[in-house]
Amino acid sequence: MTDANKTPKSRKVIEIHPEGQRIHPKKAEGRFAKLRLAVLAATQLFFYGMPWLMWHGRQAVWFDIPGRHFYIFDMVLVPNDLLFLSGLLMVCAFGLFWWTTIAGRLWCGYACPQTVYTEIMLWIDHLVEGDRNQRLKLEKSPWNLHKIRVKLTKYLLIAAVAGWTGITFAGWFVPIREFVPALFAGTAGFGAVLTAAIYAGFTWLLGHIMREKVCLHMCPYARFQSAMFDHDTLIISYDEARGEPRGARKKTAQRGETGLGDCINCNMCVQVCPVGIDIREGLQYQCIGCAACIDACDEIMDKMAYPRGLIRYTTEAVLKHEYTDADIKKRLLRPKVALYGGFLGIAAIGLVVGLFTRQTMHIDIIKDRGVMVRENKLGMLENAYRLNINNASEQPQIVSAVVRGFEDIRLNGLPEQGLEIPGGELVSVPVQVSTQPEYADRGSHPIEFEFRYRPAGAPENQARTIREKASFIGE
Ligand code: SF4
Ligand code: SF4
């Protein structure tokens, strides 16, 4: 898709959103604006609401970094489970590739936090300062009491949104029900306050000050997403064949009677564009796929009693008349989509299976380097180890162990009936392994620990097994 990197040539863009000046998009209304609002509501309900949800007496989702535990409802993840984070990133990456190949920049237009916070800030602009024309007028007006009052109200609202966003973000990492009262009482921990302040600052900076500049100049996805596009990918496009030659006309003029195309050159599609481009100049990398121009143009088409869809979701192939809009669905099943979909499916299944079958006890065996080998009071060779036993569940669990490697090998330090490890705790236990001198001559010998663990009170047949390799140093 070579057009993706094209620079717009339209001079009208410069007139409507003068370069170097703040973009004041007009508010778009229509079905895609409603869809954007619904996605915004759903994502923000999740972000702001989730930290307040309780689960079995604690925060349902709590990323306790100092405690090295991630709580996600019944699941408790410990540092050994970091592999699942890589799995999750793979699912997100393949999901994004797959979705972008099918539907272009839907993520950018509807769900990306940058888009969402820009939308919230634009909503505040609109609420306090009015629509585009009123905002432009206010910008140009001299400072007076009215302007100071309006600007102050706006900045207070922006500060409230940014502040609460920062507090909420910190609340994913510290118990929010304790953090918020402590914050207002001035007793909250420095780390949590700093996290909230930094996130609030970035919300203000990226959502209010930088806005579309983040998408235009900072976002790497904006640059590489066109590599995932093919000529069957859904894009938001102006139907040049139908729209041109563009031009103003009387509202009473019949369609086609003026010799003009359907574009009445009202520039509404440019006025609503949050990144300040003219979609009629072709697909541009700056376009975030928000569909505001579709809503604006559909409204004009309705007023003119022309069919909707002069600007619409379509594909490059349709624009080149290779097939029609009605055939777009049939093009979903194509090799690139199937390939990304296959990778996504494998990664997602692997992640889900891995998460639900993961060990809830993690054991590290650390050889005591101080004493390589010694003779115990029974005349046996003995090596010392430290077992770091991490109970990655919220229930107490019983762990027991045997060790293998020589004909006569014994393990001391763990009770035969097993050791109870409290839920979510890391316990360090010194143990000794011994054998008769004739089985372990000089050098290192491979041995194996077999641990069995089960929830406290559960029968032995519910125990799960972990095997870990270690080495035994002989005489
Ligand atoms: S909104 Fe539609 S009719 Fe108006 S300028 Fe844009 S493409 Fe043309
Ligand atoms: S061109 Fe249309 S879809 Fe693209 S950013 Fe502008 S308004 Fe949104």
Automatic annotation (TrEMBL):
GO terms for molecular function: 4 iron, 4 sulfur cluster binding; metal ion binding. InterPro entries: 4Fe4S_Fe-S-bd, 4Fe4S_Fe_S_CS, Cyt_c_oxidase_cbb3_FixG, Electron_Trans/Redox, FixG_C, Helical_ferredxn, Ig-like_fold. It comes from the Bacteria. The keyword Membrane applies. GO terms for cellular component: plasma membrane. Keywords: 4Fe-4S, Electron transport, Iron, Iron-sulfur, Membrane, Metal-binding, Transmembrane, Transmembrane helix, Transport. Pfam families: Fer4_18, Fer4_5, FixG_C. The chain crosses the membrane at residues 35-55, 75-99, 155-176, 182-206, 337-357. Residues 254-282 form the 4Fe-4S ferredoxin-type domain. This is Cytochrome c oxidase accessory protein CcoG.
